[in-house]
Amino acid sequence: MKIKDFMSTNVVAVDEKTSIHDARKIMEAHKIRRLPVMRKGKLVGLVTERMLLEAAPSPATALSIHELQYLLAKMTVKEIMVKKPHTVSPDMPAEEALQLGQDMGYGAFPVVDNGRLVGMVTESDIVRVMTRVLGVRIKGTRIDLKVTKQFGNMQRIMGILDDRKAVLLSLMTFLRPEEGDYMIILRIQAEDADPIVKELTGAGFTMTYVG
Fold first, then answer.
1. Residue 36 host element (H or E)
2. Residue 59 in this model has a pLDDT that exceeds 70
3. β-bridge pairing 141-147 and 181-189
C-alpha cells in the first residue's frame, strides 16, 4: 500500500505571510496540529502547533495583553517555520514512510508530486493503515512460530493452512540474528484452530504463542 492510498488530500495550508495568531486560529478551527507553508503555490515550510505555542510570549512577561496581541499579529509563520521540510512521494510504500518518520523523529510529512503539494500524511495515518494490513481488527487466531532458515518451511506451513481451509489474515516474519532463526507470526480464521496448531507442531515447528 502506498502513501497516495490513504493520505489526506484536503490539505489546509497557509501563506508564509500569515500571522502566528491567524495560524493558531486556523489550526483550532480545523482541529489540526500542522500547517504546510506556501509561497506562490510552492511548499516552502511547515509549522506545528508546538512552534506556535513556543513563539508566543510567556504569560509572565511584563507586556500588556494589547502589546502581546500586537506582537503576535506582527509575527508571521515565516519567522518560525521549518524551512524546506522533508517530503514524501505519493508512491512511497507505507512502511518506508513509517521507518523514515521513526529515523528522523517526524510525526508527519507533506506529500509532494512533481513539485506540487498533493497531501499530508501523519504517523497516525500510517499506523492505522498498517493495522488494516495486518488484519488485527478482524477476529482470528494468532500463531507464533520459531522457524529455521531451511528452504521449504513456508511451503509446508501454507500447505497445512490450505488443507485445513484456514483463511490467512496476515503474515509477518522477522529474523532473530542472536538465535539464528526466524519468527513467523500468523493470524488466521478457522472454525477450529487447535488441529492446525497440532499439525504445525507435528511438522516440527515450535510454537511460542497461540491466542
1. strand 34-39
2. no
3. antiparallel
Indicate the residue type of 205. F
Residue 149 pLDDT exceeds 90? no
Q: DSSP secondary structure string, 129-162?
A: HHHHHTTTTS--EEEEEEE-S-TTHHHHHHHHHH
Question: How is the chain split among helix, strand and coil, in percent rounded to 5?
Answer: 35, 30, 30
pLDDT tens per residue, range 158-188: 999 999 999 998 898 888 877 778 899 999 9
Answer yes or no: is 75 within a domain: yes
Select from 159, 210, 165 the least CA-distant residue to 190: 165
Structural domain total, the chain: 2
For residue 159, what are the domain limits?
141-210
- Residue 39's domain is classified under what CATH number? 3.10.580.10
Helices 153-163 & 194-202, crossing angle to 10 degrees? Answer: 150
pLDDT tens, position by position, 108-120: 999 999 999 999 9
Residues 6 or more apart in contact with residue 75 via CB below 8 angstroms: 19, 20, 55
